[in-house]
Amino acid sequence: MKRFAFVLAMLCTACCQAETGYELWLRYQPIANAQYLNACKSLIRSYEVHGTSPTLQAASAELERGLKGMLRISLPRTNPGSIILAKPEHLLSFPNTIKTTLQKTGTEGFIIKTISIDNKKRILISGNTDQAILYGVFHFLRLIQTAQNIHSLDIISIPRSALRLLNHWDNLNRTIERGYAGFSLWQWNNLPACVDQRIIDYARANASIGINGTVLTNVNANALILTDPFLQKVKALADVFRVYGIKTYLTARFSAPIENGNLKTADPLDPAVRAWWKKKVDSIYQLIPDFGGFLVKANSEGQPGPQDYGRTHADGANMLAEALAPHNGIVMWRAFVYSHTSEDRFKQAYEEFKPLDGKFNANVLVQVKNGPIDFQPREPFSPLFGSMPGTPLMMEFQLTQEYLGQGTHLVYEAPLFREVLDADTYANGKGNPVSSTLSGFAGVANIGNDLNWCGHPFAQSNWYALGRLSWDQQLSSEEIAREWIKQTFTTTPAFVEPVLDMMMHSREWLVNYMTPLGLTHIMYNDHHYGPMPWGNSLGRPDWNPVYYHKADSAGIGFNRTSSGSNALSQYAAQVRQQFEQIDTCPDDYLLWFHHASWDHTMQSGRSLWNELCYRYHTATDSVRQMQQQWKSLRRFVDPERFRHVEQLLAIQASEAAWWRDACLLYFQTFSRKPFPAGYEPPAHDLEYYKNLHIRLTY
Amino acid sequence: MKRFAFVLAMLCTACCQAETGYELWLRYQPIANAQYLNACKSLIRSYEVHGTSPTLQAASAELERGLKGMLRISLPRTNPGSIILAKPEHLLSFPNTIKTTLQKTGTEGFIIKTISIDNKKRILISGNTDQAILYGVFHFLRLIQTAQNIHSLDIISIPRSALRLLNHWDNLNRTIERGYAGFSLWQWNNLPACVDQRIIDYARANASIGINGTVLTNVNANALILTDPFLQKVKALADVFRVYGIKTYLTARFSAPIENGNLKTADPLDPAVRAWWKKKVDSIYQLIPDFGGFLVKANSEGQPGPQDYGRTHADGANMLAEALAPHNGIVMWRAFVYSHTSEDRFKQAYEEFKPLDGKFNANVLVQVKNGPIDFQPREPFSPLFGSMPGTPLMMEFQLTQEYLGQGTHLVYEAPLFREVLDADTYANGKGNPVSSTLSGFAGVANIGNDLNWCGHPFAQSNWYALGRLSWDQQLSSEEIAREWIKQTFTTTPAFVEPVLDMMMHSREWLVNYMTPLGLTHIMYNDHHYGPMPWGNSLGRPDWNPVYYHKADSAGIGFNRTSSGSNALSQYAAQVRQQFEQIDTCPDDYLLWFHHASWDHTMQSGRSLWNELCYRYHTATDSVRQMQQQWKSLRRFVDPERFRHVEQLLAIQASEAAWWRDACLLYFQTFSRKPFPAGYEPPAHDLEYYKNLHIRLTY
Fold it and tell me: B34-81 pLDDT, tens per residue?
C-alpha cells in the first residue's frame, strides 16, 4: 500500500501541470502524510446533500473536487453519507441542540459538527441557508488543507460583519487603475454571452474566504456601465456570482443623468434627476434582483458630485439611497475627498463629513480609507472612525499596494489591517477600537488576469486576509498567514514557520525602508513607486512630497498639534493626548504629528537623525535577510513559484537600498549631519537618484 | 497491468488541474491507446545527449517532460540511450550517410532517423547546431502527440525560410494595439531582474513551431525602448529567447535621435543622426550580441519618417541598415504607408515602394502586408509581391484577427495564408507564386496574458499555423490543422475530422457573412468590429466604409480597372487579365475591381443582388451549423474549453446574422430590390443596426 501510494504520488507529479498560482489557496494537493490521510479517509467515505439549488450544487462540486484532490477519492453520494450537507428543515433526524444553535447563526453562519447517527460518526455541515452550507464546505476543506484534526468537530462560525466586499478599480477598456496584475477580469466585449471559467473561479475563491460582494467598476466611474447593453453584461456576471453568495455592485457616476439621460443637470434635488435614478435603479433590479447597490466617489479628484450644484454629500447619497431602498440596495459613499482645499489634507475628510453625521439615509454607509491621507505604509487611523455615531461606516483597505511596492514587493498587509482595527478610538471612552465602529469592509482589489491573479505570489495573501478578517475580526494576522501558507504552499513546519516570520515582519520592514517614523507620501508623483522626497514641481502644494515631510534645517515632520494644523483635534481627547506631546508621541508616528528637530531624542535614545539612519539601514538589511531566508527554502517549493519569488525579492532588496540611499542623502541636505559610523555607504550620490526614472504607470 | 493503468488514468485525471489552454499544443497528455503506448515504450527507454549548452539542456528537459507526460516514464539518461541527441562531431559512430545528409540541412534543419547500433534500434535526432536538435526534439514529440508511427523514422526537415517572426504590437504600458487576449507578456516594471515562467513557456511554444524571431514592441513605436534602462530589460528577455533559438528585434521610432538623443533632427542624411544610430546600435549589441534588428513603420498613420526631411524610405532604411550591418542585423521596413494621398488607397504602397526597388541596402527587407489594404477577410495579394525583384520581401500576416472577428469569432487563417502564398504573381511568367517572392514571414501576434494566451481557444491555431507554414510553405492547411487539433484536444478521429471541417471552412464563412464578393473595409471605425457599411462621417475619404464599397443605385464595388483607378496595372499582365474583365473576374474578387450593376450576372448564374443575399444567408446558416456541430462533440472535450467555445460560437452565430441583416438592409437602400423568397427575414430594421454600439476598443 505504501509503495503503491508512493508510485501514485510520483506519477501524479508527472502528469500534473507546473504550479502557476492560478489555483490560489484552493490547490487541494494530495495529502502527503499517510497517517493524516488515513485518518481522513476513515471518516470520509461518502456524502449526502439535501436540496438542489445552484449554491448547493456548487457546494457539492467543491466538496467532491477538494476531496478528490486531497484524498484521491471520488466521493460517492449516498444516503446516509459520512458527510451531510443539510439545512435543519431537510433532515428528519436533525439534532435539536443544533437546531437551537442555528437560531443564532443568521443567514451566513455555519456549523460543522461531528454527530452520531446509527452509531456511526458523521460530519454535519449545516446552516440556515444554502449559502451558509457552501461557506461550511469551504471551511471544512480548509481544515483538511491545513491538516487540522477533524476527528471530533464542533465548529460554529458566524461572520461579524454583513458587508465583506472587494472594490475593483477596473475601467471598461479592461485597464485597471492602480492594478499591477494585468487586465481586468471582466471581458466586456464577450459578455453577456460568454462568461469564462475564470469568472467562476473568481467567485469560488471569494466564497472560500467569505467575501460576499464585489464592486465591478472603478470609483473614477464611467457612466456607460449604467446603459442597458452594459447592464445586460453585468447581469451575466451577477448570475454567476449569486450562486456563490456574492452580490454585485457598481460605481455610479454622479453625472450619469446628463451623460446617459440627456438631462441638463445632475442636481440631486432636481425632481427629474431623482426620477431618472429611480427608473434606472428599478431597471437594474429587473435584471439583477439581488443587486447590491452603488459605490460613489463624488467631488474628489475631478469626479462630479452634488457639490457641483451647491448640495451636500448627504443630498447626493440620499437621492441614490431613496432609489435603492425599495429594493434593499445600499449606497457606499466614499469619504475620500481630495478637491476641497484645506490647509492640511489630513483634515479634509473629517471637515466635510463630520458635520453630515446623522444626515444620511439608513441605507447609506460612508466608506472611509483606513487613514486620513491615502493608503500610506503607516497611517494613524482616520479620525472619522468613532466620530460618526449616527452613520454606518465601511472600512476601505487597499489590497493593491499602490504605495507598498505594488506588484513587486512582498508585503503581507494583515498586520496593517489589524493595527488599524485594534486602534482605540476612545469614542465613548476606552475600549472602542476602530473595528467596533464598522458596519462593513471593502478591499481595493489586487486582482487582474495575470496567471496567478495578483502578480506577486505573496500578494494573494492580502486578498485572502481581507476576506478572512472581514468575516472574523478576532483572527490574528498569524493565524491567517498560517492558513494561507499551508494551503498555498505546504503544511511542512520547516517551511511554514520561516515564511510566517517573513510575512509577519514584511510590512514593518517596508515602513522602515520607505517611510519610517511617520514620514508620508514621499513617493514619485503619478506612479507612486520609488522615493522622490525632493518632489516639489506640481501645482498644488499637497501634490508634492515636500508638503508632507516639511524637512528644513531645523528638522522634519508635519506639525499637526495645537501649535500646527491641529488635525489632532479631530480625535477623541485620549487619542490626541497620545500624539500631542513630542516626548511621548510614539516614534512610529512622530513625523505625522510633529516637526521635530534633527537632534530630538527618540524613545530609542537615538537622535532623530540617527534613528532615521538606523531604521532605513536595518530595514534594508532585514529585506536582504528575507531574501536569504527564502533561498534556504527552495526544497519546499515548486521551481516556478520559488524562482518568481526569488527574483522579486532580489528587486525588493535592491529597491530597499535605493529608498534608503535616496532618502537619507536627500534629508542629509537639511540635517547636515554625517551618517553614523558602521553603515554601508550610499551606492551613488543624490543626483543619481534624482535622475532615476525606472517605473511606468500601467 | 491494464487495470493498474486504468487506475492511474483515473487518479491522474483526479489530480490534474482543469484545462485552461495555458499548455497550448504542448499538453503531453497520457497516451490513451494502449497499443500505441506500448509501441512507443518498446522503442523509448532512455536517452543520451552530447553537449551541455543551454539549448541542449532545454531540448533534454522538453524530451523528459513530453515523455513523462505521454508515456508516464521518467526517461533515464544513459549511454547508449534509445534516443540520441547529438551533432555529428559528438558521436564517434555517427553514420556517414547521415553526415552527408546534414551537409544540406544548414543551421536549423534537423533529421530524425531510426538507426541501428549494436543491433539495437535507436532514434537519432541530429543537426548541425544545438538549435537544430531542439527543433528535432519538438518535432519528435509532435509525432507522438499526433500518434504517428515512430517505428522506422527517416525525417529530414529544413526550414524554407530563414526569417520566421512574430510581431508584437505591444505598448510599453502593457496595452496591446489590436490585442484581444489581455495585457502584454512583457512585464517591463519587473524586468530585468524578474523574468517570469510565462516568458520561458512563450519561448518553448515558439521553438516548437519553428519561430525564430520576435519583435517585442509596437510598430507605432515608443522611443523609450531604445534607452539604456529599457535595453537592459530587453536583454533579460533576449537571454531567455536565445536558448530557444529566438532572436530579439525591436521597433525603431524614427525620431528617436530627437527624443532620446536631444538632436535637432532625425534626417537620415545628417551625419550626427547617423552617428547617433550607429552608437545606439553598437550599444545594443554590447548587451545582446545576437540582436536581430529593427522593424520600422515610417511616414504612415502619423509615425515620423524620412519623408519628414524630404528623404525616401530607402534613405531611412539604409541609414539604420548601415548601423546594423557590422553586427549582421537587419531592417524590416514596412510597406504599409497610409498617409500619402492617392486617389486609390489600394495603390499607395506600390506607388511609394516600387520606384525604390534596388535602392535598399542588402540587409534591408521590405515587409508587405498580404493584401494592398489592411488585413481584410479576403484581399487579392499585394502587387508589391513579384514587383520588387531587387529587394528581399517579408510577408506580414495578421494573426490577431483585427478584421476577422477579433478574439470572438472562430477563424482558422491558414487557408487565407495559403491562398495568398499560392497566388501566382506571374513575375517572370507563370509559376511564380507569392511564396517564391519571399525572404521571410512575420505574423502580427494574437498573444496576450489571458490564461489561454490567445483569447479564443481556436485562435491558438493561427499562431501555430504561422510557425509551421513559415518553416514549410508546402504544408497544407489541412495538415497543419490536423496536427494542431490532435495536440490541442485529442487524436480521436470522431473529433478530429468534424473539427477539421469546421476550421477549414471557417474563414470562407467569415468572408461571406462579413464581406462577400470582394467587399472591403465596411467595419466600424476605430475598433473595426461589426458592420458599418453606412459609415461616412470621417474627414478623409479612405477612412470611411462608403469609400470602399461605393454602392449607389447603379451598383456596388470599386472600379480598379483601366476605366477606373487602374490599380490593376500594378500587377503582371496575366494577373490583370484575370480581374480586368467583369465577366471573367472571379466572383470572390468582383467588387474589389468592378463597380458592378445590381443585375450583373455572376458566375453562379445569380444576379449580383441575389448572390449577395445568398452569400450572407448561407454563411450565417453555416455558422449555425458549426455551432451545432460543436455541441455534438461535447464528450471529447474538457468542460472548460468546451463551454468557452460553445459560448463564443453562440456570439459568432448571432453576429453573423447581425452582419447579414445590417449589410443587406443597407445595400437594399441602393439596390431597391426585394430579398429573394425563402430567406429568414431581418430581425430588425436598418435604424436599429445603425444605432448598435456594442464594442469597446481595448
Answer: 999 999 999 999 999 999 999 999 999 999 999 999 999 999 999 889
B120-127 and A120-127 beta bridge pairing: unpaired
Together in a domain, A143 and A196: no
Which of A338-342, A404-408, A496-500, B407-411 shows the lowest per-residue confidence on average (mean pLDDT)?
A: A338-342
Dist CA B318 CA B312 (whole Å): 10
Residue positions of A annotated with a catalytic role: 301, 374, 402
- Number of CB atoms found within 10 A of residue A586's CB: 15
Please give the pLDDT value at position B13: 41
CA of A651: which chain B residue's CA is closest?
Answer: B193
Based on the fold, state whether residues A677 and A637 are members of the same structural domain: yes
Q: Is residue B357 in a domain?
A: yes
Using CB atoms, which residue from B15, B229, B697 is nearest to A30? B15
Q: What is the pLDDT of residues A429-478, one digit of tens each?
A: 999 999 999 999 999 999 999 999 999 999 999 999 999 999 999 999 99
* CA A12 to centroid of chain Cα atoms: 35
**CATH code of B181's domain:** 3.20.20.80
Interface test with A, best of B185, B194, B647, B652 (most A CBs within 10 A): B194
CATH of residue A613's domain is: 3.90.1330.10
Q: Decide if B484 is inside a domain.
A: no
Q: Do A647 and B23 touch (CB under 8 A)?
A: no
So what's the pLDDT on residue B338?
Answer: 75
Q: Does the residue A228 lie in any domain?
A: yes
Q: Is B653 helix (H, G, I), strand (E, B) or coil?
A: helix
Kindly state whether residues A142 and A198 are assigned to the same domain.
Answer: no
Looking at the fold, whether B425 and B521 belong to one and the same domain comes out as no
Of A72, A172, A408, the CB nearest to B189: A408
Nearest CA in chain A to B451: A451
Q: Which domain holds residue B454?
A: 163-474
CA distances from B482 to B31, B238, B589, B642 (A): 17, 32, 29, 18
Which residue in B374, B472, B478, B646 is the catalytic one? B374
- Are the beta carbons of A425 and A389 closer than 8 angstroms? no
Q: What predicted TM-score, i.e. pTM, was given to this entire model?
A: 0.95
Specify the number of domains making up chain A.
Answer: 3
Pair (B110, B169) in one structural domain: no
A288/A428: higher pLDDT? A288
Cis check: omega of the bond before B192, within 30 degrees of 0: yes
B698 CB neighbours in chain A (<8 A) are 173-175, 183, 188-189
What's the ipTM?
0.93
Smallest CA–CA distance from A650 into chain B, residue: B193
Query: B-chain residues within 8 Å CB-CB of A11?
Result: 8, 11-12, 72
Domain final position from B157, B181, B214: B157
Q: State the nearest Cα–Cα gap between A174 and chain B, in angstroms.
A: 7
The sign of the torsion formed by the CA atoms of B74, B77, B79, B80 equals positive
Domain C-terminal end among B102, B129, B157: B157
A629 vs A486, A500, A501, A621, A633, CA distance in Å? 18, 11, 10, 12, 7
Would A495 be classed as within a structural domain? no
- Cis ω for the linkage preceding A80 (within 30 of 0): yes
Do both A151 and A174 map to the same domain? no
Closest chain A residue to the Cα of B31, Cα to Cα: A15
Identify the pLDDT of residue B79: 86
Whether residue B676 has a cis bond before it, omega within 30° of 0: no
> What CATH number is attached to the domain comprising A151?
3.30.379.10
* Pick from A172, A193, A651: CB nearest B194: A651
CB nearest to B17's CB, from A14, A17, A529:
A17
Residues B244 and B392 in one domain: yes
Measured between beta carbons, the chain B residues lying within 8 angstroms of A68 are 14
Q: Which of B6, B16, B57, B197 to mutate: most A Cβ within 10 Å?
A: B197
Q: Which of A170, A196, A691 to mutate to test the interface with B (most CBs of B within 10 A)?
A: A196
Average pLDDT of span B106-134? 95
Compute the nearest-CA separation of B174 from chain A (Å).
Answer: 7
Q: What is the pLDDT of residues A305-354, one digit of tens each?
A: 999 999 999 999 999 999 999 999 999 999 988 765 678 999 999 999 99
Identify whether residues A451 and A338 lie together within a single domain: yes
Q: What is the pLDDT of residue B11?
A: 37
